[in-house]
Amino acid sequence: MQEDRRLAVLRAIVEDYVATDEPVGSKALVERHGLGVSSATVRNDMAVLEDEGYITQPHTSAGRVPTDKGYRLFVDRLTTVKPMSTAERRAISTFLDGAVDLDDVVQRSVRLLSQLTRQVAVVQYPTLSRSTVRHVELVSLGAHRLLVVLILSTGRVEQRVVELEGELADEELAELRSLVLRTVTGATIAEALVALRALGEAGEPDGRGPSAATVQVVEVLVDSMSDHRNDARVAVGGAANLARYGDSFDSAVRPLLEALEEHVVLLKLLGESGTGGLVTVRIGAEGPYEELSSTSVVSTGYGPREESLATLGIVGPTRMDYPGTMAAVRAVARYVSRILDEA
Amino acid sequence: MQEDRRLAVLRAIVEDYVATDEPVGSKALVERHGLGVSSATVRNDMAVLEDEGYITQPHTSAGRVPTDKGYRLFVDRLTTVKPMSTAERRAISTFLDGAVDLDDVVQRSVRLLSQLTRQVAVVQYPTLSRSTVRHVELVSLGAHRLLVVLILSTGRVEQRVVELEGELADEELAELRSLVLRTVTGATIAEALVALRALGEAGEPDGRGPSAATVQVVEVLVDSMSDHRNDARVAVGGAANLARYGDSFDSAVRPLLEALEEHVVLLKLLGESGTGGLVTVRIGAEGPYEELSSTSVVSTGYGPREESLATLGIVGPTRMDYPGTMAAVRAVARYVSRILDEA
DNA sequence: GATTGGCACTCGATTCCGTGGAGTGCCAAC
DNA sequence: GTTGGCACTCCACGGAATCGAGTGCCAATC
């Protein structure tokens, strides 16, 4: 069927173009790939593909180059999932298994991902919002200072030091501590925020108003939990791979370098990534930023027990090895999720 | 005196070259700067400067460009310290005063520094080695889990969770806690490390050997303190400024991008920075890495009470505005030091 | 002795062909 | 629907010509 062949031609064009970075012509195509037809036939197919907007020529009498739409079709229908080699699998596990804590896991992941894909890797720290409060601890650092430690189910630990306005006796501290624990332990962040705010305003259940210390502690906890810095934290790695962009420098690398430092922007770029094994691919102008119309994003969610706590992925030129990249992103996400499962 | 004039010529060459990024010729020089001599005279001076190795021509019949040696002389003898404008001063203080904790100070500093200098900024987190232990807290997270929190005089807080091998009763925990506190509170990191190792091997002063829990806690504390990740932590900002490098891309930007991710390399690059107000400038090949022979580093130490706890600075092309950059680096370091003083 | 104007010379950058070749589109034949 | 053939297009590449900024040197001048 000729429809099938046309798709095969598109696939071949994408593969060749990704491999060589040069517009691919009809003759080279039939030589390098075993399509059993002549170059003239391929030319006809290419004309159709061009009409339909999947490929384009940089100028008359040059070969064809895939358009965003072409890449899209390639990714959606033409990609055969290529499994990671066992060597790669082993590399992933040995690399990630050495991690000592959550931060370390994230940092190793970026590194690993950027090396596997030779692209810029981005890993979001697990978001607070879906996690629950495992423990809160209040530690006295003298009569006027209090260390507030917040431990979340993801393993994230936040701490703040509070300068108390008044003094706080040991018994009062113990009381406050157990009060706070009763209020928030096991709750999700969202629930805890509500409960804490109520506590800060209404005071304890027995009817007494909240003490000054209570208000301060509540304040700092609320602050910790809602601090968007936490939601917005991401790790970036492999920026050196940008040097391979070659030409199209100011047009592509510059805005990307800028984006890499704006973590909020980065997160928006990563986007809402499909949960559970599904890898999202955003190609060129499909993304939210015009300046990045020649970059693609390959991302997926990760987290313990199949729930997607955070996102991880890579950013690269639209002209990239999608199958390989998608496989790497998926493999790393899976492995990281498994690690979080165990913790 | 002609010697003086030659230096003036060198200064003019450096300034023009930095401003225009083009080799500067004798005619343009006398026009733009008010040296009261003819271009022929300047040519003679330039010939001498070239003989002495301060300037060079990219090719015959082109203008002159400063050599590393020329920049060096410029920085050492020809730079008049240009004070920051009051607007800039105000920007610095408003920008940094909003910081909520140590990490925040560091992160704001990189950002600020990169914006002021339009270069890549690097700020080292205050090193552990010279700081002292302010407090250690052990928090039980159930019978088998223990949270170990380490608080340092710099305000840095490190925490780790320990999976205990055996159970630990509350009284035992309290005992262990006070033992550890007696051992390390107030000590420098170096002292604390020694004392802890002794504790882990010999056990408590009363002659009993160390309990299993003690060994584990000691281990994790030692680990926290000696973990070189802490010494090696740096924040980087303004990488987008690399896009301004224009040409000389693979030769300069690539290795630099790589270095920016290798924090150990970065620290070596920043080097041992002069304490107290002194700004160190490392020009081109004076630095430790060959690949970075066309980049310069401007850095200085900072820290509370005049002692230099850590280093901060910028990395940029040898062709940069040294006076302005040095002023910015010094100003930021001073301001950050003042903030640390207060804390 | 230092400075200056003048002048010949050098050499990269830019422009302008001319050419080669890859690639296309179309058409007639199968 | 496929194929071989063919005329056509247009970029990339290389060489020649030109331009001009900048130099080095020298004789004249202060």
TrEMBL record, chains A, B:
Coiled coil: none annotated. Gene3D superfamilies: 3.30.450.40, Heat-inducible transcription repressor hrca homolog, domain 3 (3.30.390.60), Winged helix-like DNA-binding domain superfamily/Winged helix DNA-binding domain (1.10.10.10). It comes from the Bacteria. Pfam families: HrcA. Residues 103-326 form the Heat-inducible transcription repressor HrcA C-terminal domain. Keywords: Repressor, Stress response, Transcription, Transcription regulation. HAMAP family: HrcA. Belongs to the HrcA family. Negative regulator of class I heat shock genes (grpE-dnaK-dnaJ and groELS operons). Prevents heat-shock induction of these operons. This is Heat-inducible transcription repressor HrcA.
